[in-house]
Specification:
Elements: H1 2-8, H2 12-25, H3 30-42, H4 46-59, H5 64-76, H6 80-93, H7 98-110, H8 114-127, H9 132-144, H10 148-161, H11 166-178, H12 182-195
Length: 196
């Protein structure tokens, strides 16, 4: 609890020290391990974060959230193959986990494997129809392969859930312009000017 207080006060070094001392006395205390992995991640000490998440998986190999966090750190560390492998494990354990599918799709977008990305992101939004980030990423994936109709559809779904997002409106405006949909361009520009 004290280490979490230090974390909220942005005293990460102190939080790490206290959490490490707790783990010296109780090395398998999962909440402290999870906190320590997150603290290492916030320090950009990715190898220590990875090692700590791997310890957590040994203690609780069925907890999908640990796999998702580990994959995220692998991605930050530019270890995309490992991130994909870990996320595939998470999806195989919980095929209906929208977050695991989203992160797998997101990694595929980053590695420019758009067909795989679209497949995973479609499943994510099917599982969670209010998943903002998944709709945005799905729109971006479709936009990358120049499937403008599906990109527009997903950006529009995103904006139904988050109508004030100007970045998505700008993307949508560009697509409308590309397709010659001038009335829709004007409508989006009006929305953008009201938002800013």
């Amino acid at each position: 609890e004290i280490s979490q207080l230090y974390l909220r006060m942005d005293r990460i070094e102190d939080a790490v020290k206290i959490t490490e001392s707790v783990l010296e006395k109780s090395p398998d205390y999962e909440p402290a391990l999870f906190l320590l992995a997150n603290l290492y991640s916030s320090q950009k000490n990715f190898q220590k974060a990875i090692d700590t998440y791997l310890k957590l998986i040994k203690y609780d190999p069925s907890e999908v959230q640990i796999y998702i966090h580990l994959a995220y750190i692998y991605a930050l560390n530019q270890e995309m193959d490992k991130a994909v492998r870990v996320l595939k494990d998470a999806v195989s354990m919980e095929p209906y986990n929208a977050m695991a599918r989203y992160y797998l799709g997101r990694i595929y977008v980053e590695t420019k494997e758009y067909d795989k990305a679209i497949s995973e992101l479609e499943k994510a939004v099917e599982l969670n129809q209010s998943f903002l980030d998944a709709f945005f990423m799905l729109g971006a994936a479709y936009e990358s392969i120049e499937d403008n109709d599906n990109a527009i559809l997903n950006y529009e779904k995103f904006l139904q859930l988050n109508p004030r997002d100007t970045e998505t409106r700008k993307r949508l405006t560009r697509l409308y312009f590309k397709l010659g949909l001038i009335e829709k361009v004007i409508g989006q520009l009006s929305e953008i000017s009201h938002a800013e």
